[in-house]
Structure formats: structure tokens, C-alpha cells
Amino acid sequence: MEQSVNLPSLLEAVRNAPDGVTMFLHRKTGEVLRISDDVLRRAQLQAPDARDDEEFRAAARVVAATEDDYLPLPNRLEVDESALMEAFVRELSNPMMRTMLARELTGTGRMRRFQDRVVELGLQEDWNAYRLEGYLEFMRQWCRARSVPYFE
Fold first, then answer.
1. How many CB atoms lie under 10 A from the CB of residue 35?
2. Taxonomically, which superkingdom (predicted)?
3. CA torsion sign, 74 to 76 to 77 to 82?
4. Cβ contact 79:134 at 8 Å
5. pLDDT for position 54
6. Phi and psi (nearest 5°) for 94?
7. Residue 50: pLDDT above 90?
8. Other CB atoms closer than 10 Å to residue 45's CB: what's the count?
9. CA 124, CA 117: separation in Å to the nearest integer?
10. pTM for the structure as a whole
11. Tag placement on the chain: N or C end, fewer CB within 10 Å?
12. How far is 141 from 150, CA to CA, in rounded Å?
């Protein structure tokens, strides 16, 4: 039987995973494992690790397990932030704010400009809540697509 996972905690693991690290969800326990890509490669090659620490042992368990026992969590970059920003702008009721933010959504540096304008317009709390809900919906869809039970 699979353990239900805490969706906000799962999202936090995804959002806080540094580059060069893969996060895995153990379906049976709901435990999230954090394994560096380097250690995971060594475990896949069955290369002895001089450290032979808990991370290497966890990587070896992931490699030896059946395909569905451990699920790699999505990378935080899989969430389409640009689409979230565009949707946020479309849903604004104030046409002036909508226009000002829409101008920031093109070209290089758009995310930084968008963030700056959000702060300038006093919409930071609204944007943060909207963005969080977008990430949570992404994780809900990820869980449903893999039949992972979750709670919020």
C-alpha cells in the first residue's frame, strides 16, 4: 500500500532542490530522497564510492529497485513560470496594471522586470499566492498522472 504524500512538502522538496541533485519519492513510504547526480551515476555504474555514505546507499537502493518503487520528482524548471506570469496578468481586474505588467513579459530579463514591476505595483502578495497555487496545481497533476495519493 502506498503512503499518501503531503503535497506542500513535496513541492518544497522540488522547489529547493539544487542543480545537480535528483529528488526521488519512495512510493511505499512517502519518503523523499535527495541524491546528487554524481552519486547516482556511480551507483548506476556500480562503482564503489570511497565515502560509502547514506547518500550512496540510497542511490544504490533507487538503482536496484523496480521502476515504480522510486519516482524521480520533477525539476523545478519544468514549471512554466512564463505561462504563470501571463495568466496572472490576464486575470488582473485593473486594466492599467494589466497593461504595465504585460509590457514586462517580452524580451531578455522579463522575469526580473516582471518581479520588479509586481513589487512596484504592490502586487507581490497576490503574485506569490498565484504562483504558489500554480506550482501546487503542477504537483497535483504530477501526482495524479502517476497515481500518487496526496493530501494538502
1. 22
2. Bacteria
3. positive
4. yes
5. 86
6. -85, 115
7. no
8. 9
9. 9
10. 0.85
11. N
12. 11
